[in-house]
Amino acid sequence: MKTQILPIDEHSLGLAKDIIIKGGLVGFPTETVYGLGANALNDGAVKLIYATKGRPSDNPLIVHVHRDYDLSQLVTDIPDYAVLLAKAFLPGPLTMVYRSRGAVCPTVSCGLDTLAIRVPSHEGAQRFLKYVNLPIAAPSANISKHVSPVTAQHVFDDLDGKIELILDGGKCSGGIESTVLDCTGPVPCVLRSGLVTRDMVAQVAGECDEYHMVEGERVRSPGMKYKHYSPRCRTALFAFDDRFKALEEYKWLTARGERAYIMCDDEVARDMGDAKILSLGGDENAVAANLYDRLREGERIADIIIAVAPKKQDGVMVGVMNRLTKACG
Ligand code: TXA
Ligand code: MG
To answer: Measured in angstroms, how far is the CA atom of residue 61 from the centroid of ligand 1?
Structure first.
């Protein structure tokens, strides 16, 4: 199969719609990471997502819809706080889990009675979702366990020959996957941290819990238990306070002829002398936006990525540290 990367216009959207309707897969941009989309009403198409990514069959998918889509077709029991949250944050990088109506095929939610819904804000995503006007099941468009893609080229690098079309909407501005929020209880609960932080949710909803996996308990968000986001090179992770140890490690490895790079934000970089840097940028939003791009760059050019955590650990950094730990820890 030949994989095309096309800019988003009438021609490519027409092609995308044909592919989706016949049960195929389309790579498309969102403001977080690129998605690998299929018609959520077509069981064969949804199964193809799992096969193409090599995704474990008990890790449910998010359904993506355009901003005018009538959610009551898909889910039920939408609590008042969720209406407020949707008003405040959608379209945007927030996925909300509700009771499913059972309209999409059960493979999407791996048999759970809930359904995760996302309304992305990326203009290209909105155009694609409007054009097909179907609920689109989509995980991140990477091979399972690899780093999520934030450019059309990243999708191509993982899925060349496996899908027909990648819609190119440029580099994703957000850079880490959406916040996943359980909206089935009396209080919303963060299942996966992202750019919409727990504090932001609490400010609108009054309160917000955060889910922590308990050993032996049945997980509420099955995706949490899997290894994720790994670059295809060696990695090491140092805390901010250990940044000079990271520099020692870098010097030791470099002296042995290894291609080592330090991945860090600008504040840490100022202490790293003339070490080779994979730069995450200055503030927390830049760090989120650059993280996956630098991990993918690192695996191309380095034998080992030595990551140093930023000093700031709250807000958006909760989501960033979650990914950084899984990628490099
Ligand atoms: O930003 C994003 O969310 C990207 C873009 C493409 O939209 N998508 C994404 O999908 O990250 P994926 O498949 O890589 O991650 C989906 C996450 C997993 O952690 C999964 O367990 C959780 O959402 N999830 C999906 N359905 C769920 C449900 N019904 N209940 C609880 N968690 C669910
Ligand atoms: Mg993923």
So the answer is: 5
